[in-house]
UniProtKB/TrEMBL annotation:
Domain Endonuclease/exonuclease/phosphatase: residue ranges: 21-237
InterPro entries in alphabetical order: Endo/exonu/phosph_ase_sf, Endo/exonuclease/phosphatase, TDP2-like
Entries under Pfam families matching the protein: Exo_endo_phos (PF03372)
Cofactor(s) of this protein: Mg(2+); Mn(2+)
Keywords: DNA damage, DNA repair, Endonuclease, Hydrolase, Magnesium, Metal-binding, Nuclease
Lineage summary: Bacteria, Bacillati, Actinomycetota, Actinomycetes, Kitasatosporales
Protein name, per record: Endonuclease/exonuclease/phosphatase family protein
Organism: Streptomyces vastus
GO MF terms, alphabetically ordered: endonuclease activity
Keyword Membrane: no
């Protein structure tokens, strides 16, 4: 069984231990009950969603998933062209913003879901992304991600999502040079995120700015309440879960 990650808590010095989940949910086209069970079992404070519903009654679908998994909606969905942010009631939201990226003719429109949140005295910028399948556009979007994360104006920040690229790719390397690649810093659980039936590549990741302590990060295989049938049925990606300690400000 996977060693448990630290639970969410506030430390005596005011720092916050939080659990962050990044998950491509494939527009909720699969088993949404299994999806909600996986999210609930991870007990996240923040959920960085990719491929949230974007079309007919998308808000209602995302709200139903949030309620079923013990979360509330912060931002995103169709208004960010797919990325979204959910949170537990532990988070205090300062503001949230959806960002649409420049459209390349013939390619899918991309965007970021962003927010600034507080956990007690810990203040944190958050960004969920789903980068392009086209390598040059993806590299440009990686730079936009770094710029947008800095523009949130917070002392600490995290970003995560479906990068559509493995760690050896130049966009992944660009992000990992500027930010902490949480899996590399403190590997925990499983590494590969695609596909659930035959995991063989890491194309989903969580990143953190310097000063955030990564306590563990990886695919929550063997976590109590999570079963392989649910992971296979929920969507076509495996989730990435991290425990982070964010300093007080």
């Amino acid at each position: 069984m996977t060693t448990p990650l630290p639970t969410s808590r506030t430390e005596p010095d005011g720092s916050a231990v939080i659990r962050v989940l990044s998950y491509n949910i494939r527009s909720m086209r699969d088993d949404t009950e299994a999806l909600a069970r996986v999210i609930r079992a991870c007990a996240p404070d923040l959920v960085l969603v990719q491929e949230a519903p974007r079309f007919f009654r998308w808000r209602k679908k995302l709200a139903r998933l949030a309620a079923a998994s013990g979360q509330v909606i912060l931002s995103g969905g169709a208004t960010a062209s797919g990325p979204a942010l959910l949170s537990s009631l532990r988070a205090t939201v300062e503001h949230a913003q959806d960002v649409l990226l420049p459209l390349t003719p013939g390619l899918h429109r991309r965007g970021f879901a962003t927010a600034v949140v507080r956990f007690g005295r810990a203040r944190l910028g958050v960004l969920s992304c789903h980068l392009s399948l086209q390598k040059d556009e993806r590299y440009e979007q990686g730079g936009m991600l770094l710029d947008r994360l800095a523009a949130l104006g917070t002392p600490y920040a995290i970003a995560g999502g479906d990068l559509n690229e493995r760690p050896g790719g130049r966009t992944f390397k660009r992000l990992a040079t500027e930010l902490q690649d949480c899996w590399t810093v403190a590997p925990w659980g499983g590494e590969y995120t695609s596909t659930p039936v035959e995991p063989h590549q890491r194309i989903d990741a969580l990143f953190a700015t310097e000063g955030i302590q990564v306590l563990g990060c990886g695919v929550p295989l063997g976590l109590p309440g999570i079963t392989e049938p649910d992971l296979r049925a929920a969507t076509d990606h495996l989730p990435v879960l991290a425990a982070l300690r964010v300093p007080a400000v």
